[in-house]
Design goal:
single chain; 312 residues; alpha/beta; Rossmann fold; Profilin-like; Arc Repressor Mutant, subunit A; 3 domains; 5-stranded antiparallel beta sheet; 13 helices; 50% helix; rod-shaped
Length: 312
């Protein structure tokens, strides 16, 4: 029996893109053939300038990078890639004929994830490249999943330095610690993140009255600390500010009615207490807020208390 089969269009999986950067034509040719045979789409560049132009067109899934090239060398190019947020996740594997430990360390210090020594052994190159491309893709999907959930993630190494941060965390930290001096901005952000390791959940102001919250989620096996970042809603931000001031529930009620323009006697009648008790509460409130007058306390109440509890 013959069954009728409707035509179905399947979307072919996207091919992984590899950028090969080398000034030697024979190396480019050999790698292009080998990578194409493995199913990769291949881009080539003869120097660092061409490599940056390729990145402007499309961001590859991995880079095979010659360490020694005319003009900007591979180490400087890798540093520039890692300093550019939209490109920093791309794994860079160095190709070098240099076997000195110093050169190998320089490659890792500039942001490379691995290296292969010339003359190249193609099976080894393909195996190492596939591992790093797959790992980078898994990490990118994990980062995107965190950001889609409306949170950001930061990892601090054992020395308290930022080892990795998700795209959303990067955007929030740049907003919170914006400065013309990039190094100063990064240092301020790192210092603030470090306080969360011992201080529980802490916050910092963002534009438009928002607050950025960070909480320490624990340490990993290698001493890394995971921090979770989120934006506080207005109510959560107000709650956090009230917690920092440490007003009691009764003091909060008194301050709320004070902010609505009520006299001590009015507040006493509303809350069922004596005017003397109201005055005692206000003394404590003024001390905690660091003010001396009712008008100053009322002004601060507008920042501390949720809008609905202040507006008459």
């Amino acid at each position: 029996m013959t069954r009728s089969v409707e035509s179905t269009h399947f979307k072919a999986p996207a091919r992984r893109v590899i950028l090969v950067v080398d000034d030697a034509l024979d190396t480019l040719s050999m790698l292009c053939d080998a990578l194409a045979a493995e199913g990769y789409a291949v881009l080539v560049a003869r120097d660092a300038i061409e490599a940056l132009q390729r990145f402007e067109i499309t961001v590859p899934d991995g880079v095979l990078l010659d360490a020694v090239m005319p003009g900007m060398d591979g180490f400087a190019l890798c540093q520039q890639l890692k300093a550019t947020p939209p490109w920093s996740h791309v794994p860079v594997v160095f190709m070098t004929g240099l076997s000195e430990t110093g050169q190998i360390l320089q490659g890792f210090a500039s942001g490379g994830v691995d290296y292969v020594v010339k003359p190249l052994r193609i099976p080894e190159v393909l195996a190492r490249l596939a591992t790093h491309v797959n790992n980078a893709r898994a990490a990118r999907l994990a980062r995107e999943a965190v950001d889609v959930a409306g949170m950001g993630t930061v990892l601090l190494d054992a020395l308290g330095r930022v080892a990795w941060r998700s795209p959303q965390a990067t955007r929030w930290l740049e907003q919170a610690f914006e400065s013309e001096d990039t190094a100063q901005s990064q240092a301020a952000a790192a210092s603030w993140l470090g306080t969360a390791q011992t201080g529980g959940e802490v916050s910092v102001a963002l534009p438009e009255g928002r607050r950025l919250m960070v909480r320490h989620m624990g340490q990993g096996d290698l001493g890394e600390s995971m921090l979770l970042l989120r934006l506080a809603t207005q109510d959560n931000a107000a709650t956090q500010r009230m917690r920092e001031v440490a007003l009691t529930p009764r003091e909060t009620e008194v301050l709320s009615w004070l902010a609505k323009g009520k006299t001590n006697r009015d507040i006493a009648d509303i809350l069922g207490m004596s005017p003397r008790t109201v005055n005692k509460h206000l003394e404590h409130i003024f001390e905690k807020l660091g003010v001396e007058t009712r008008s100053a306390a009322t002004a601060i109440a507008g920042q501390l208390l949720p809008q609905g509890s202040v507006n008459p």
